[in-house]
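Table S2 (continued). Query chain:
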Amino acid sequence: MKIIIVDDKDNVIDSKEREALDYSKDIYRVSALWVLNNKKEILLARRALSKKQNPGKWGPAVAGTIEEGETYESNIVKEAEEELGLKNINPKKGFKELVLGQYKHFTQWFILKKDIDLDKLKINKDEVAQVGWFNEKQLLEKIDTNSDDVLKDMKGWFEKFR
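Corresponding output:
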């Protein structure tokens, strides 16, 4: 499946096979899901060690790259089911940001408030190594003491969702 390529205003300009992406210049689209429960804990997922980008790092509960024929909305619903087995979700649209680092992409954030029993999740081990609920203190400790263990933008995302 081809990945959507956009300009710096998030207008579609092309699509490419993932292997053909030029990470030094191509901007692509990503959707990400921030999940909160009634205890105000945040659901995080640790990326599978087999992942090419950021293997083994803790990040949002769900994230995915937008492919041809998908919207940010359809992608996050698909990824939530593929990665964690979450069905029939209706997340709220959050903020969108342009990330200009080693990988250049627009990330459209979605927010889901739901109490989820981790034992009932169907985790796709090709995508996710593990999941866990973290309260504010635990998350900040993880960011401050194990910064190599979490995605580098985690603190900024946490501040935006606070």
